Each structure stands twice: as C-alpha cells, then as structure tokens.
C-alpha cells in the first residue's frame, strides 16, 4: 500500500452542472437535476437519499459507464469519457465472474496489468484475508452467500489499488456484525492510503460515522440538499465507534441528515 | 435438477422392459410372413450377424471360396471413423470461423448490421442444396464434403455466439473495464468466457446438423463412410447390413450429444447458476 502514497493522485472529482435523463422522448425519467460537486483527493464522501433518487445514477456517471445528458465530469484535469482503473467500482449487485474462483476474481485487476502470478496471488490473499474470506479463496462465486460475494467484490476493487473508490451500498447485504467490522476496515484502509471514496448508503448512521463529508440527495430527480463536513471518520483509530455514536455531535448531525432525507 | 432415484437400480427398469419389448416385437414380425419378400424384414439376430461380419474378415459366401475384409474393403467401424473424421474437420473449421465472427458481430454493432442478413440467409439454406455446386467446385472427394459440413455447422455456431455476447450482463463488462481492462482484454477475459455456454450449445446444434448432413452427403461417392454404406447396402438388398448401419448412425448421434454435454458440464459448470 506504500505504492499508493508515492504515486501521484489522480486528483479531485468534479461534477459540474450534471443532469441525467433516462429513456427517450415521451417516456423521459429525469434522474439527476443539476448536480455540482467537487470531491477533493482523500475525502471520504458518504451519500444518502431515498430509494430511487439517483444515487446509483450519479455513481455510474462518475464511473464512466454512461455519459450525462448535460454537464460534465472530470477527474483531475481529465474529462471522464469511460471507465478507468483509477476509479474502482463496488457495484450495488456483485458482479463476479463464475468462471474464475474467488481468488482469481480478486487477482483479476493485477492480472490484466501483467503482474506476475505469485505476486498477484499474494495480493489477492491479503485482501481476501482483510474481508475474512481466506477459507473460500478456491470456491466459485456462486458457492458464496450474497454478503460473501459482496465482500469478494470489495476485495477485488481494493486489490486493484484505485485512487478513487466508488462504493454503491457495499455493506447493505451484510449482517450487523460483519458490517461494523468492515466499516472499521474501510476507515483504517482509508486512513492508511488516503484514497478518495464516494460511499453510497441507505443508513443514516453509517453515512455520519464513515463520512468526512455527508451528502443527502432529494427524491428523484436527485439534487444535493445537504452537504456537511463530519468529524467522526477522521477520529483516531483507537476511539471506539460506540463512543463516537454516543457523542452529542453525532446525534445532532444524524438528526439533520435524517431530516434532510425525509 | 436430477432427482436421485429412491430405489437404487429400479429407475432403468422401464427402459430395459421397453427395449426387450421392442426386440421381441421385432423378432416376431421378422419371423412371421407378414412382410414379403422376407429379406426385407431381417431379425435382430440377422442384423447383429451382419454387424459382426462387417467388422471382421469373412467369407464372401454364395459358394465362392474367398475371404473379404469387412464391407467394401473397410470394416464398419472404419466407415464410421471416416465419417466422424469428416465431421471433425468441418466442425473445427466452423468453430474457427464461427466463434470469432460471432464475437465480432456480437460486439460491433455495424458489423452485425452488415453481416447479419448474410448469416441469416446462409442459415436458411438446407446444406445439401450446396452439394452439386460444391462437387463442381471441389470434386467428388473429401474436400467438397468438408466444405459442406463447414457450411452446415458454422451458421448455428456463429448465431449462438452472437446471442451469447448480447446476453452478457453489461455490468460484467463495466466491472472489468473499471479494473483497467482494454476493450480487447474485456472481450477475451469476460465476453468470451461468459459466452462459452452459448457457444457450446451452438456447437451441439451444429454437430447434430452436421451428422445428418454427412450421412446424406455420402449418398454421392460416400465410400468409405457410414452413410455411404447404409445407402449402398440398401440398394444391394443387404437389408440387415443397412439396418445395422442405421442403428450405428443413430447410436453415434446420441453418443456425440452425450460427449458434448459432458464437455459443457466441465467447461461451463456455472451454467444456470450465475
Ligand atoms: N437504465 C435505466 N433506465 C431507465 N431508468 C432508470 C435506469 N436506471 C435508473 N433509472 C431510474 O432512475 C431513477 C434513479 O435510479 P437510481 O438507480 O440512481 O436510484 P438509487 O438512488 O440508486 O436508488 P436505490 O437506493 O434504491 O438504489 C429511478 O427512478 C430509476 O427508475
Ligand atoms: Mg442504487
């Protein structure tokens, strides 16, 4: 992971005047309405909002899977024209490859870059260990539960070491215990690597706890209706999340976020 | 989902009873004089006898004191192998052309628009319609037959590949592009493996089609060849041998299908699971 801090970062993510409309004339579904947003390098931005408000749409635009109807998106000084390795994507639904075993899935990014087999296998095993799937490295994805597939997907993205990580409700399918553990892992990884993270979540508590900055989107067509800094992600690693949650600041921000969503 | 039979060993009982019933019925019909002349209805034993003779050195019979090798100088299994070899060559060529063409047509919209109608046209032609043309071009020997098999086998393979490519989940491709894959890498490391089950189904269809075609194609200068032998023996009133050939042709088709299913299961074990 030291490689990341040495490498020059891809730069800030800029979303400028982005609107997005699905469908064709006559049956138009406006999903995003004039989004302006800059995510600085190293920020951990959480994005919450009601179901169907356009969170995934925004993430897919930043990922480069589609082009916005109007406005533009750039990373550093380069316009986003398609997907790229510097923007890792954790999909809302896991997209693992059934012809590869779990380890093969996690090692795929390095493999595409031509990393030697021993090295990429070691790398994959490191991240499988991180997400607690060491024992399942030789299984096929369809032999895993939904939550395990999601963790595999997270490991696959992290093993590829992107500067920017786009995560679409990554912990939604997990049990509370695993979720809390992975929240902790995400924070320590973020502290150690300084990656830029856009993290979509349904959970108000999760948004407040994990974000250095919390965004809330309005119902469709999505607009950003709350944009506030949050101090809890930056707290030192040895502070128990329980204590953070118990603080009055946490309760206050949670209340404001909840209000903005409804 | 296959269910394990509750009483082990009894599940195949109906099949065996049916087979025995068919053989008994066949023997009765052959032994009766319902069908005239009698040589038109050989008994199972006569067919078995013809099958064995066709696979061994045997006397010509009819009072002539000469021993011949199988039928038409080849053993029956050699006739079969020759036909299978024709299929194999035609099929390999069809795969080599059909799969890349299908991948290209499936991934590049403009290629699909241009080449699609021609492929549909080719597919709609019964392969045997080419036979006269191919004989004129490539002669009466194996070249024309292999061309025929190629033309029979490649459209279903190409079409199945196209269908497979178009069925690949968009996000599976997006995911690999986000891992840094080039367009080419996306095709080789995601689109192709994701399409493997469809390609194999296409090959299965193609093999069935090619087998039907080769047997029919061997009516013209088909010796050695199992289809040629089936036809010739019939015209020479060796009905028992002809029936033996028909049975071999049918059983081979079933065996081929079984082998491809086996390959499908080893190459794409995830089929239907992901
Ligand atoms: N490919 C598409 N074609 C047409 N409409 C779409 C498409 N994708 C999304 N939409 C519509 O755009 C709106 C926003 O969808 P999006 O997936 O961004 O919501 P979301 O905020 O991620 O919701 P959730 O929290 O439930 O995942 C929805 O109303 C949805 O119906
Ligand atoms: Mg979504």
TrEMBL record, chain A:
One Pfam family named in its UniProt record: ABC_tran
Keywords: ATP-binding, Cell inner membrane, Cell membrane, Membrane, Nucleotide-binding, Translocase, Transport
Residues of the ABC transporter domain: 13-244
Gene3D superfamilies for the chain: P-loop containing nucleotide triphosphate hydrolases
CDD domains with a match to the protein in the record: ABC_NrtD_SsuB_transporters (cd03293)
MF annotations from Gene Ontology: ATP binding
Positions in coiled-coil regions: none
Record-linked SMART domains: AAA
Name of the protein: ABC transporter ATP-binding protein
Organism: Mumia xiangluensis
TrEMBL record, chain B:
Superkingdom field: Bacteria
Annotated source species: Mumia zhuanghuii
Gene Ontology biological-process entries: transmembrane transport
Regions crossing the membrane: 87-108, 120-140, 146-165, 209-233, 239-263
CDD domains: TM_PBP2
Predominant subcellular localization, coarse grouping: membrane
UniProt-annotated location(s): Cell membrane
Gene Ontology cellular-component annotations: plasma membrane
InterPro entries in the cross-refs: MetI-like (IPR000515), MetI-like_sf (IPR035906)
The protein's name: ABC transporter permease
Membrane topology: Multi-pass membrane protein
UniProt similarity note: Belongs to the binding-protein-dependent transport system permease family.
Sequence ranges assigned to domain ABC transmembrane type-1 in this UniProt record: 80-260
Keywords: Cell membrane, Membrane, Transmembrane, Transmembrane helix, Transport
PANTHER family named among the record's database cross-references: ABC TRANSPORTER PERMEASE PROTEIN MJ0413-RELATED (PTHR30151:SF0), ALKANE SULFONATE ABC TRANSPORTER-RELATED, MEMBRANE SUBUNIT (PTHR30151)
């Amino acid at each position: 992971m030291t490689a990341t801090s040495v490498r020059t970062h891809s730069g800030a993510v800029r979303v400028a005047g982005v609107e997005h409309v699905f469908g064709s004339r006559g049956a138009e579904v406006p999903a995003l309405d004039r989004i302006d947003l800059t995510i600085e390098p190293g920020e951990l931005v959480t994005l919450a909002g009601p179901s169907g408000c356009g969170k995934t749409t925004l993430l897919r635009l930043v990922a480069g899977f589609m082009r916005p109807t109007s406005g533009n998106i750039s990373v550093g000084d380069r316009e986003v024209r398609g997907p790229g390795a510097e923007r890792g994507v954790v999909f809302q639904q896991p997209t693992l490859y059934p012809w590869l075993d779990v380890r093969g899935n996690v090692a795929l990014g390095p493999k595409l870059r031509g990393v030697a087999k021993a090295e990429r296998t070691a790398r994959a095993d490191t991240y499988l260990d991180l997400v607690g799937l060491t024992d399942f490295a030789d299984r096929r994805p369809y032999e895993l539960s939904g939550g395990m597939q999601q963790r595999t997907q997270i490991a696959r993205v992290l093993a590829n070491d992107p500067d920017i990580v786009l995560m679409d409700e990554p912990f939604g399918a997990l049990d509370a215990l695993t979720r809390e553990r992975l929240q902790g892992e995400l924070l320590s990884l973020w502290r150690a690597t300084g990656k830029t993270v856009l993290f979509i979540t349904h959970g108000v508590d999760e948004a407040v706890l994990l974000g250095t900055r919390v965004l809330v989107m309005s119902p469709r067509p999505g607009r950003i209706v709350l944009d506030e800094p949050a101090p809890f992600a930056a707290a030192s690693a040895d502070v128990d999340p329980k204590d953070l949650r118990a603080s009055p600041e946490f309760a206050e921000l949670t209340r404001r976020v909840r209000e903005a969503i409804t | 989902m296959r269910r394990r039979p509750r009483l082990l060993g009894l599940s195949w009982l109906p099949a065996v009873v049916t087979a025995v019933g068919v053989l008994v019925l066949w023997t009765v019909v052959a032994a009766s004089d319902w069908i005239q002349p009698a040589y038109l209805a050989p008994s199972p034993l006569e067919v078995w006898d013809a099958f064995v003779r066709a696979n061994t050195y045997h006397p010509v019979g009819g009072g002539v004191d000469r021993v011949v090798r199988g039928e038409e100088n080849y053993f029956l299994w050699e006739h079969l192998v020759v036909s299978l070899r024709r299929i194999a060559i035609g099929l390999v060529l069809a795969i080599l052309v059909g799969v890349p063409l299908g991948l290209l047509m499936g991934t590049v919209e403009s290629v699909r628009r241009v080449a699609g109608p021609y492929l549909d046209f080719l597919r709609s032609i019964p392969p045997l319609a080419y036979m006269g043309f191919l004989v004129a071009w490539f002669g009466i020997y194996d070249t024309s037959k292999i061309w025929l098999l190629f033309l029979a086998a490649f459209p279903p393979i190409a079409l199945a590949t196209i269908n497979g490519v178009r069925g690949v989940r968009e996000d599976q491709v997006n995911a690999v592009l986000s891992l840094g894959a080039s367009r080419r890498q996306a095709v080789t490391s995601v689109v192709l493996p994701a399409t493997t089950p469809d390609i194999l189904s296409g090959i299965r269809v193609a093999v069935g089609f090619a087998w039907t075609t080769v047997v029919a194609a061997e009516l013209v200068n088909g010796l050695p060849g199992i289809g040629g032998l089936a036809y010739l023996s019939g015209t020479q009133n060796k009905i028992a041998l002809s029936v033996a050939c028909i049975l071999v042709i049918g059983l081979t088709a079933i065996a081929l299908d079984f082998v491809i299913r086996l390959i499908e299961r080893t190459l794409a074990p995830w089929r239907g699971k992901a």
